[in-house]
Design the sequence.
C-alpha cells in the first residue's frame, strides 16, 4: 500500500494558518499547543508540529526531535495548571489506528485517581471553560 500524503486542508492546518480559532496555550517556531474542543478530561491539550506531516509515521526524525521537548514542556504545565495527579499521552496513526485529524498531534490528558477519560469526540466544551483552562496553562508555562 502506498503511503498517504499530507493534506493542507485539515482542521489543524487551518488553525496553524489562523483560518480557524483555537484556545492557544503555547507557540514557537516548532510547535503549537491548544485546547481540544471536545476534551476527554478537563485540561485536554493538543500539541502539534508546525512541520506539515500526517502523523508519527511520516514526520521527519529531525522535526520529531525538535517537537518532543515542546510536548514535555507543555505536559508539565498542563499537569501543574490542572493540579492533576498524573497525565496520559495519546497519539493515533491513520484511520485504523484511531486518527481522525491528519496533522500529527499529541494528546495531553490530565488524570486523577478514579476519574475515567470521557469517550472521544462526544461533547463540545463551553468556550469560557476552554478559555479558563488555557489561561491556567499559559500561566504555568510563564512561571516554568
Ligand atoms: P484524533 O485524530 O487523535 O483521533 O483526535 C482528534 C482530536 O481533535 C479529537 O480529540 C477532537 O476532539 C479534536 N478536534 C477536532 N476538531 C477540532 C477543532 O476544530 N478544534 C480543536 N481545538 N480540536 C478539535
Sequence:
Amino acid at each position: 500500500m502506498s503511503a498517504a500524503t499530507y493534506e493542507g486542508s485539515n482542521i489543524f492546518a487551518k488553525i496553524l494558518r489562523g483560518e480557524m480559532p483555537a484556545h492557544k496555550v503555547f507557540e514557537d517556531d516548532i510547535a503549537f499547543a491548544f485546547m481540544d474542543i471536545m476534551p476527554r478530561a478537563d485540561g485536554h491539550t493538543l500539541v502539534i508540529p508546525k512541520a506539515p506531516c500526517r502523523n508519527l509515521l511520516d514526520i521527519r526524525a529531525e522535526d520529531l526531535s525538535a517537537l518532543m521537548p515542546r510536548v514535555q514542556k507543555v505536559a508539565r504545565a498542563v499537569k501543574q495548571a490542572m493540579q492533576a495527579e498524573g497525565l496520559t499521552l495519546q497519539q493515533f496513526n491513520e484511520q485504523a489506528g484511531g486518527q481522525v485529524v491528519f496533522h500529527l498531534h499529541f494528546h495531553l490528558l490530565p488524570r486523577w485517581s478514579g476519574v475515567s477519560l470521557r469517550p472521544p469526540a462526544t461533547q463540545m466544551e463551553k468556550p469560557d471553560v476552554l478559555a479558563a483552562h488555557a489561561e491556567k496553562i499559559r500561566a504555568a508555562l510563564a512561571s516554568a
Summary: Residues 91 and 106 are 5 Å apart (CA to CA).
